[in-house]
Structures are given as C-alpha cells and as structure tokens.
Amino acid sequence: MSTSAIIMLIFAVIILFGGLSITIKKALDSRSEDNN
Amino acid sequence: MQRDQWNTRTAFVLAAIGSAAGLGNAWRFPYVVFKNGGGAFLIPYFVALITAGIPLIVMEFSLGQKSQQGAPGSLAKIKDKFEFFGWWPVISAFVIVSYYSGVMGWAWNYVADAFTGAWIGANTQDYFYNSVLKISSGPSEIGGFSLSVLIGVVITWILIYYILREGTESVSKVIWFTVLGPIVLLIILIVRALTLPGALTGINYYLQPDFSVLTNFRVWIDAYSQVFFTLSLGMGIMIAYASYMPEDSDIVNNALITVFANSGISFMSGFAIFGTLGYMAQNQGVGIEEVATAGVGLAFVTYPNAINMLPGGPLVVGFFGIVFFLTLLTLGIDSAFSLVESNVAGFSDKFKWDKKKITLTIICLLFVAGLIFTTKSGLYWLDIVDHYINSYGLIIGGILETLAVGWFYDPEEIRNYFNPISEYKFGKWWNVMVKFVVPIVLIFLLIRNFIGDIAKPYGGYNLGPQWIAGWGMIIAVGVVSYLLSNISTVEDKTN
Fold it and tell me: Does pLDDT of B495 surpass 70?
C-alpha cells in the first residue's frame, strides 16, 4: 500500500472509531452517573 | 392508549444504527469512494456528515422525541397543514421496503444454494439472471412469478412480522443479533480478504487519495448524496424511532453514535469488498477498475464470482458465500423493518388502531404491492422504482422536512429543545445548516436528477414503464400522502 493510502486509512480510523469511542464513553459515563 | 417506549437507550441507538446501516453500506459506499478520488473522497464525505448528516439526524430525532409522534404527527404538531410533509416520507418508505424485500429474497436464494452448491463454481451471472430471477426480456413481459424469489420474499416478511409483532419490545431483543451480527460477519470477511494475494493492491485502489478531485463540484455533490442516503433520512424512520424515547433523552450524543457507527460499518465494508476484488483482479490478470462495480451487480454477480475463486475447495467457498449473504441479510433486515415501523408509527398515531393489527395489515399490503418484484420482470421494475424513489421521493421528503422546520417553524426552538437535554451542545451553526445548507443541497440534487432524466430517460426503458413505475409512482406518493393528511379522525373532530 502507498504511504498516502495508509495516511488516509489512519485519518479515517481516528475520526470514525475515535469519534465512536468518545461518544460511547460519554453515554456510558452519563448512565453510571444516573445510576448513582 | 399507552405509547410504546424503548426499554433502554442502547436499544434505541442500536435500532437507529441498524436502520442506517443497510445494503448500501456494503455495496454502494466502497464504490463511491473508489470512483471519487479514493481516500481523498473522505474529506468531502466528513464535511457532508458534519454540515448535513448530523444536523438532519439531530433534527429528525428532535421532531420525534419532542412530539412523541411518528413523522405525520410530528410535522402536524408544527402546523396542521404540514401533516402532508410527514406522510410523504412515510409513503416513500412504503415504496422502498416493497422492493427491498425482493432484494432480500434474492439473498435467501444464495444462502440456500450455498448448501446445495448451485452457484458454487458456476457462472454467477448465469445463475443470478437465469436460475434465481429467470429474467424476462423486458419490463413489459411480466412472465409469471419466479418461485424461488417469491419464497425468499415470504420468508423475509414472516421474519419482519415476527420482529415487529411486539413493537419496541421484540425489536429490542432482535437488534443485538441484527446489528452486531453483521459486524462480526464483516470482520470474518475482512480477515479472509486481507490474507489473500492481491488484497493490498485492492485496498490501495480503495484508499489511494487523488486530491485533485477536491476541486470537482460533482465529487462534493456525490458526498452529500451519499451522506443523505446512508443515514435513513427523509423516510420518517428516525422520527418514528425517536418518538419511542423519553422526552428528556440525550439527542446529540445518540445521533453522533449512530452516525459514527454507520460510517464505520461503511468504511469497514470497503476492506472486505476491495480486498476480495484485488484478489480477483490478480487472479484474472486484469486491473481493479475492470472488476470494481456497485449495487446489485456487485452483490449478486461479481462478489459471488470472487468467492468462487477462493482457495480451499467447495466447502470453504460455500462457507464464505453463506457468511457474505448472511452479512447482507442481517444488514438489510433491520433497515427493512425500520421502513415498516415508519408506516406503523404514522398509522397507529393517526388512527389509534391496535398496533399489532396495523403491523400485520401493512405487511400484507406491502407483500401484495411487492409481488411485481418477484416476477420474471421484477428486476426491471425494481430498477426503475429504485431510481425514481431515491432521485425524487426521498429528496423531496428531506426538502419538505427542512422547509417545515427551517422556514415555517423556528429552528432555534428545536435547538433550545435538544441542547439542554444533550451533553454536547450545538451552536447557531446548526440553524444555518437546517435552514440553508441542507435544503439548498437537496434542491440542487433534485434539479440535477430531473435535468438528467429529462435529457436521457433512465436506463433506456420505454416511456410506458418509466411513467408507471417512475413519474406515476412519485405522483401516487403525493396523492396518497395528500389523502391521508386530509382524513379527519374521531380525535380531530372532537378537537
């Protein structure tokens, strides 16, 4: 794979799966706050 | 009458992801990326997500959650006359699911015939057109039913009824399998694809960026179009699903999880598709561009053909064939039942009929309406209806919704509703997107499609089928929506 393709791969992974992780974590945190 | 409610927030988010992630994620997104500058396309795609996809899904979630009504009821709460704006997306959803079930019927045939070996090692083009579809010479030669497709469609409708029979309660149980299942199956396909010779060449074609496309207006329009279609917007689904949430549930975070998960599934699908196509191209000694395709041709001819070339003999080929078509079926089933639910919510809110009976009635109507797609000419009719409902039905639905909220209601009111109950707050930019950017983009898409179809009738079909299943169908969507919005219920009269 070319370097530019790998850079785009990393770019997409950070945005999509980074964004997903942050938003899911936020939802889980608010759920545990509700339980407390 | 007590309204249905999701038993957990997770159930709602999973159902929304399941609805958004459908067949298009697997068979459209990777090809659109490949055709529009590879990895460089991700830049307009993310811009479109932020400026149109996220604002629109937040708007639909807000409409449903605030009004506790499906699309017609939620739009009618803005202004009585706008009930029509809410029926349009619901009736468009009715049309879509009537043929979507036909596509799932084809997929059932491939799963069953992976066991019998009918398409294993065979010419997949011949198998699809002659064994499954038994295709006729054109749309005007109906040619009777293709029994195997009809059986597949019946299985699909029985499953959809089974899933929807108890409303959100039964859906909440099934979505764990139908949303997480295809992700697991996709991972299996990706691992297999990436360990094949030539796979990295395929992935390179998928992601190799050509930044010169960023100055191409068409690429940006394709990005907005892809974002609009991938999130199940303009069909009343997200409004209906959100209407089963408590009024104080976090809207923005739910929307962001749905968007990221849906796009993540699309992105992952590209590795399974292009990894396998890379192997296939190397095997045949041709370039990727010669085997890369999208839609029905990719799913039912090219990809099964690539599976046929996998090393390991018929058992391995059969196994990966089943995995691939189960991925399509599990991706498709929750999109299909969400389209039905959009109708169920609309009708049960308006007429206050028993939800279980409404579900059964709508499914029976859909089965009858979709019979044309199970005939030997079904593929032609499906192709025409699919083109017109996507090019006009959904886009008009999106325009009506954004005009209602952005221009005849105050978007600030909606923002003032979702911001206090959401952990992430949106600024006034959201109002600008809903009022200007989204409707302008959608109106542009509508005009572009119209000019294209006037200049060159779609697919080279005769005017008769184009008028019946194309323009005629769009007019019918409008007439039915108008009639439904003008029926007075007992409740309306007492008010």
Answer: no
Q: Does A34 touch chain B (CB under 8 A)?
A: no
Segment B407-438, tens digit of pLDDT: 999 999 999 999 999 999 999 999 999 999 99
| Chain B: residue whose CA lies nearest to A8 | B39
Could you tell me how many CB contacts below 8 A there are between chain A and chain B?
Answer: 65
**pTM of the shown model:** 0.94
Residue A27: its chain B contacts at CB < 8 A?
9, 13, 250, 253-254, 257
Whole domain around residue A5: which residue ranges? 1-30
pLDDT 10s digits, B444-489: 999 999 999 999 888 889 889 999 999 999 999 999 999 999 998 7
Whether A8 sits inside 8 A of B204 (CB atoms) is no
Instruction: Choose the mutation target among A6, A22, A23, A28 for the interface with B, i.e. most B CBs under 10 Å.
Output: A23
Distance CA B86, CA B90 (A): 7
Using alpha carbons, list the distances in angstroms from residue B237 to B16, B83, B145, B234, B375: 8, 16, 31, 8, 28
The topology (CATH level 3) of B9-489 is Amino acid/polyamine transporter I (1.20.1740)
Cα Rg, chain B, nearest whole Å: 22
